[in-house]
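Problem: given the chain below (545 residues), write out its structure.
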Amino acid sequence: MAGAAALTALRAAARECQLAAPSFSDEQAAQGLAITDELRAHFMPPASSAQADSRLLQLPAELLTVVLSNLDTRDLAGLAATCRSLCRDAPTPPPPPRAIGPVETELRRRAEARGLDVGSSLPEGATSWVACLLKRDRRDAQIGQAPLAVGSDHSMFVNNVGRLLTCGRAHPSIPVLGHAAYPAANPNLPREIGPPTPVPSMQDRCIVSVASSDYYSLALSADGEVFSWGRGSNGALGHGDEGDRIVPTRVESLSRIDRITAGLNCTSAAIDEKGRLFTWGRANNFDDEEDDDGEIVEFERPSGLGYELDDETYRQLTPKRVDALLQDRVVGVALGEGFTLVVTDAGAVFSFGFSREGGLGHGSLESVVLPWRIEALAETGRRVIAVAAGIRHALALTEEGELYGWGYERTNGHGLTREVRTPQRVAALIGQRVKLMNAQGGASCAVTEKGELFTWGIALVGNLGHEDNDTYFEPKRVEGLSGVVVTAVAMGWTHTLATDAGGVVWAFGIRSALGLDAAGPMAAHGTVMTPTPIPTLRVRVFNSP
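Solution.
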């Protein structure tokens, strides 16, 4: 009798709960389910409960759907009240992992080795991980590795099998060619090498990139080692002293380096595979001078190295990390006259050093010691992928192929008769997609997606390739390379080198530096006004993205 009375009371309570259920709060509903579970535990052993829950769940999904479709709302509610496994919402299963093929795996490995955070979602506008990673990998290789370099009177090459070659003229006090033997008869005469000639001490090294100034040279091997030689003034070679090196000598404090840059005078830079920037050499290129009254005028001496130096020291003898950029992954660096430009993987551009002619791009002539972001480029909303710097001007290239220039009026590309202190888009190249650019000394150049070469700036000895020595304030196409698809270019005060898609090197400017003479004494003052291929030489080719 007690059991029957309890069941009668339970049915009455259940009816009251059913009628009141629509007004239950979430908390009350949860309490009701908990009471139901407790009651079920009293009426059914755990084993039987598990069996009751599992009988329907053991049915094939199609059959379970048929069973449930034949139940009305009340029956479904009753089933939910008595079968927890059917009532409770199952957690949403995580999406299955995306299948990653071997090509993407390798591209991700390379990116991670360089310290690049690939992320979990594709960049805006991208539809394929492989295409996105390939584009970045090829862009990094093209921008970071240069098969050509030029100084004032010499040239450097990386041939198609990774060997280092040099040619040109070098004074004994500036041994930029890297060859040990000098003429014994008269060691004071300039050393001359006619055609591009392998550097003997480097023939067991695979070289991927070269860089040069008027006074010294750098080479980067495939295993990330840096070699330097030439004049060691101000520690430009990075060996901890100011001694010269006739043959390439490894910079011991650098390893796993990805990119190298040589400045106009005695400043050098390197980026390692983690995107950390190292600089060394002279902090700036300006000495104190006497004014008309014989008084010493002290120049402001901001460090173009990216860190503070004491008042008595204007040089860094060994590579030193730029700690102010440790939060950024640096992918490019350019060295002007006393100032430096840096581009990060995020597409931001920083500058520091001496702000002559507005070369820092901040809108003023104020010099800065530590890296300072160029806001005018950030405001464009474009991602910058490369920078270049000449003596008093600078360039920046965006991912969309837009070219920006600023600084000295004759070389910034805007065709103006005054300096430009903030980056502005080079109007003459609007409508052209630029894939690479270069600047050194008083000249600049750009290569379009079609492989057409444009040059502008100051011409001294045919170095712009326009068959004259006029100054061009705006980009002008080099007609002598019509039909040639240019893939790399290096230019300087006196000559320019460009490669085509087959690795052929086209040269113009001062003849003594070009490697066009097969044998015999070189013409000291000869000039090549029309782009001319260097016989028998083939260099490494980096295809554009």
